[in-house]
């Protein structure tokens, strides 16, 4: 597309706000305006959708004030709340240093990354000392390619952090709905395009979560004669932001457990990006015609797309240096004749990654591994390397062709895990400048240099992925879909670090009255 | 092993209770007694571990009454609780029919399966009618192979439901620790080996969960000029049991969401099965020697093992008949020359499974699919088939050789998903009789008959898997590790079924005082 090159251009999409606030469900399909941002000149108006009606506004509003009038049946639930009559157990010093249970970390709103966790340290239960775990962790980039190659859609391959600013798009959180009671809210201070500073209030919340879950437990069965039933409730600390990147809402959580585990989690809600269609029923569609998505309602197609969220995890296991990445591969081992009635077992084989290419990981169900970051200079009491492992979750891989322009720009999604040596300039997986980038400054390019990563200050990159084939339940607004992965101690502590948390007893529980009866 | 065949035999493992209640950490390694259960005769005493010391009792006790004396540092948390001043929103009729929000289902304690959910129905928000989703769902079998082929270990390949009884091993739940306040407790009534009935009190709990999470949300960014921030809290219903199969504790949850989603979840806690070792430090181990696990503490090896939990899900989407299994495969499609600036996109290709072999599914990250169960006779308003999908999670695949005797017996783990036509006799994935079975009555055998499954009453089987390489943090008792999958509506409802749940406001929150100050 020659007219688009070497200019700062943007493609304007058109919707109508008539009769609904949910204009995303009323696309003026095929109408795209190419605009030069420097000259403010309209370069081109493309209208490919003249025969496609604008979908009806009916049933698109989702505001509570409007929806009450509808006939949808529901049994209302009685009030339920996470209550802490003595207040939360965390403190936040100087509006950035969070201390909770055995954790300490810095928390910072960032215009591009959203939330940055830094200097995360956990207390050693034996010595009482704070130990380094992660120097810095944040969502480095997102990639959201839509799966429709037609004129009005092919370019919809968003990189929400580098293009829009994941933090800039984080709107104020709604107390009691976005975050429970006793949450602490932190403002972001950002700079507008004209250089004016502004405050984004309530951009991040911090709260403790008790979800009725179990930290650890064991009961003995009667045959042992031991009257043992020891159970500990699980309480965690959550840092949250919610970025509304136009239609989509990304809920980003960093959850800390007192057993040393960190769980980054991404929830997707908000509104689909849909396509206008002449069809009102699938029975009108020729068997050979492909719609690029699901007919969600009359004249509305939810186009198939992926979401990738790439995390930058600058691990500092017991300090910045001497960290190494170890692949602990589980391999099928056959027994030799006569060795055992068993023919096979799984054997753990450790491989320390020497260079970056050793750490370009595609996850394989039938060739599984654990992925450890260890401090090569430190052993536990019985001689194991101390470390943390990344436990994958929410895996979806980008299947786009590696030579496809959007995939070149998003080549950081070519693997699920990468490890690079720390380099101050390598923070943003799609490169520092993302708009109209060609993919020459991505994580994939850096990693292909194949630098040494053993016994270094290293950065681990993990990508959460989602394939999204829309369904009717996503219309007109989507129930949250979540995925998470874990950063988890592995021979980091000498033993279970939460042996001495006390069980709950009735005397710990608050005494609560209904608010209405107060 | 000739002396073991055609007899009812058991292998007795030996531990010492001296100086600790956590005898699992004091194995008398290599001492195995083969016992004839009918004659009560000792057939053989094998002692292969004469040079292996019994590990020390130090640091093995995990009881709160003992641990307090230890020096482990901890910052105690203030009380935190899920509070419902007006009580819970579910009802349980006749001690088995659970009604909550838009759900109704039957709940039954079962000696073998543990918890059985049956006749799960969800209300249609448009018509108010209850619609069938699942006729019956339960944990059909477990498979826990240890990865050590030596004499004292090769046979440790447990099937906890068929061998021990997942329900029989479910011990009474600990109120306020296993389940939060306002939980309902259900007893199990079982039969002892001598025919005597007995009551297992508090075997199952039912409770509502509010974890600070978000059901759906959207905020508009300022440029639209729309002052919109609509957020709904997520409240769910959980059914839980905790089975202590000797050392291990399995926490089984069935979580119901009012958006129609069902999330079966398995948590692992309890105590490792460990192996005695002559070593006290890894520096004593010859580089060529393989330990079959991790040295967790002096003389204690946590042996590598897997856990597989296979769920029987008798889906009845809008009724028992006319259900079909559809694989919606996402395939990379290359564009033709000149078609688009894009070279590739993902295309959804639907394939209805005709027979069982079409539905023997190994999950593939780079060949992804959605897995739907649809009612082939029913379409939504715009013509989509109504259905539910199974969303995999917690995937680990058994890598053991298919001809290995334990894997033959557990051939139901050869795939992650299977679909069979409903057959009353096919409830237990390892076969009705599991002890000393040879694998001739497993799900794999049934499925290989390759019966028709289109437009039938069908059963979907899903296996959650865990590879477990133990680490020091698992000693002397393990922090819970959890995994789950989802059973989720896909074009089952005409639109988002929870549009009209109200947001929280301060007037909904209880007023709570600390118990101590009451």
UniProtKB/TrEMBL annotation, chains A, B:
Biological process terms in GO annotation: amine metabolic process
The EC number(s) this enzyme carries: 1.4.3.-
UniProt modification remark: Topaquinone (TPQ) is generated by copper-dependent autoxidation of a specific tyrosyl residue.
The protein's required cofactors: Cu cation
PROSITE patterns: COPPER_AMINE_OXID_1, COPPER_AMINE_OXID_2
Domain Copper amine oxidase N3-terminal: 5-55
Comment on bound cofactor: Contains 1 topaquinone per subunit.
Catalytic residues, chain numbering: 160, 248
Coiled coil regions in record: none
Top EC category: oxidoreductase
Keywords: Copper, Disulfide bond, Metal-binding, Oxidoreductase, TPQ
Domain of life: Eukaryota
InterPro entries linked: Cu_Am_Ox_Cu-bd (IPR049947), Cu_Am_ox_TPQ-bd (IPR049948), Cu_amine_oxidase (IPR000269), Cu_amine_oxidase_C (IPR015798), Cu_amine_oxidase_C_sf (IPR036460), Cu_amine_oxidase_N-reg (IPR016182), Cu_amine_oxidase_N3 (IPR015802)
A GO molecular-function descriptor: oxidoreductase activity, acting on the CH-NH2 group of donors, oxygen as acceptor
Domain Copper amine oxidase catalytic, first and last residues per copy: 81-498
Residues bearing PTM 2',4',5'-topaquinone: 248
Family membership noted in the UniProt record: Belongs to the copper/topaquinone oxidase family.
Record's protein name: Amine oxidase
